[in-house]
TrEMBL record:
InterPro entries: CdaR-like_regulators, CdaR_GGDEF, Diacid_rec, PucR_C-HTH_dom, PucR_C-HTH_sf
Protein name as catalogued: CdaR family transcriptional regulator
Domain CdaR GGDEF-like residue range list: 143-249
Pfam families: Diacid_rec, GGDEF_2, HTH_30
Limits of the Putative sugar diacid recognition domain: 4-134
Coiled-coil region list: none
Family under the similarity heading: Belongs to the CdaR family.
Residues covered by the PucR C-terminal helix-turn-helix domain: 307-364
Source species of the chain: Pseudomonas protegens
Length: 373
């Protein structure tokens, strides 16, 4: 239920007195003055307002009547209505005969301000409730029929297939372009999206999977708008809330993997890094030591990082010798020598599928840095 407060009452007073040569008072539903051009009268009772509240009609007070009432001056007191409900009183000080001409216009303006403030409060409540619902829907207990039904009623469309994006922004954006403004920008341009922020530097955006989107171009556009985005992790299409929750966890791992292993990569997609991320998630398990042992033998003899750079390129080019040699800027014979050296040190043949896979997975768990050709 909407009620007048001091801020709204004083706003009505200030706006009205900017064009009227008379004092204005705004009283609540108990006759207490909340806003006034005479600050000393705020928080005092107005007997004229109490007459209006008791009778639900306009009350004019002339000089003789004012002398009989406490804390009252001559003027007109009008009921303030919102949705046909009496919520307060508007009082204009002066000769009633001179005030009648525009008293109704002043009341109309005041009621318009009340309506606008109520609408703003409703919108703010709705935004906050939607944020709370989204956080609950993405939590482990998010399949509650009551939550899903409320989400439907709020127009969130929980049944849509969605693709999650997890943005990591700079902690202190110099331009003021932070998480809230990014959320507003995305929601305004991509209908039926969800945005959930867990911190000042993190934003989860779940766009409808039916939307076609060029991810590099989106990142370029966001850069042009002034957002300092460090990196973004893009998941796959998720069906239903359970699928979206799983995918949300995956993009969280993907973002952390990129921060740890690929610090210079700003756009990470789950389709590209799904297997490395799965292994990285278990990076502290003893079983991974066996996977990394052959690669560690190579690194122990690779003081200048040349063999690791070669192995990365070999994996990036799917074992295609000419493409790998061209990317490294070396002759195929030099590439063959390096691959033989890798096989000798690691005890694993990178020319065989199982050997290439073992070395590939090990490489994906090493932090990436610039390496010589």
């Amino acid at each position: 239920m909407f009620e007048l407060d001091h801020d709204l009452a004083q706003d009505i007073v200030d706006r009205t007195m900017a064009i009227l040569p008379y004092n204005v008072n705004v009283m609540d539903s108990q006759g207490l003055i909340l806003g006034s051009g005479e600050p000393e009268r705020i928080n005092t009772r107005h007997e004229g307002a109490q007459l209006v509240l008791a009778n639900g009609r306009v009350v004019e007070i002339d000089e003789p009547t004012a002398r009989q009432l406490k804390g009252v001056q001559p003027g007109i007191n009008l009921p303030l209505l919102h949705d046909q409900r009496l919520i307060g009183v508007l009082g204009i000080t002066g000769d009633p005969a001179q005030l009648r001409t525009y008293a109704e216009l002043v009341r109309m303006t005041a009621e318009m301000l009340v309506g606008q403030r109520h609408q703003q409060a409703e919108q703010q409540w709705r935004r906050q409730r939607c944020d709370d619902l989204l956080a609950l829907l993405l939590s482990d207990g998010g399949d509650s029929p009551r939550l899903v039904d409320e989400a439907q009623q709020m127009g969130l469309k929980p049944q849509l297939a969605r693709t999650p994006y997890l943005f990591e922004l700079a902690q202190e954006p110099a331009s003021g372009q932070g998480v809230d403004s990014l959320s507003s920008w995305l929601l305004s341009r991509y209908p039926d999206s969800w945005c959930v922020s867990s911190s000042k530097s993190s934003l989860l955006w779940c766009r409808p999977a039916s939307l076609s989107l060029d991810n590099p171009r989106l990142l370029e556009k966001l850069d042009g708008q002034g957002w300092n985005i460090l990196r973004v992790a893009v998941g796959g299409q998720a069906e239903g809330l359970a699928g979206l929750r799983r995918c949300y966890r995956r993009v969280g791992d993907l973002l952390a993997y990129g921060r740890d292993i690929l610090p210079d990569a700003r756009l990470l997609t789950l389709n590209r890094y799904r297997l490395p991320v799965m292994l990285w998630r278990h990076r502290n398990d003893d079983a991974l030591d066996e996977l990394l042992t052959p690669l560690r033998k190579v690194l122990a003899k690779d003081s200048n990082g040349q063999l690791l750079a070669t192995l990365r390129s070999w994996c990036d080019h799917d074992g295609q010798s000419q493409a790998c040699a061209d990317a490294l800027g070396i002759h195929r014979n030099s590439l063959r020598y390096r691959m033989e050296r890798i096989a000798e040190l690691s005890g694993v043949d990178p020319l065989r599928l199982d050997g290439m896979l073992a070395l590939y997975l090990g490489v994906q768990l090493l932090p990436h840095r610039s390496e010589p050709a």
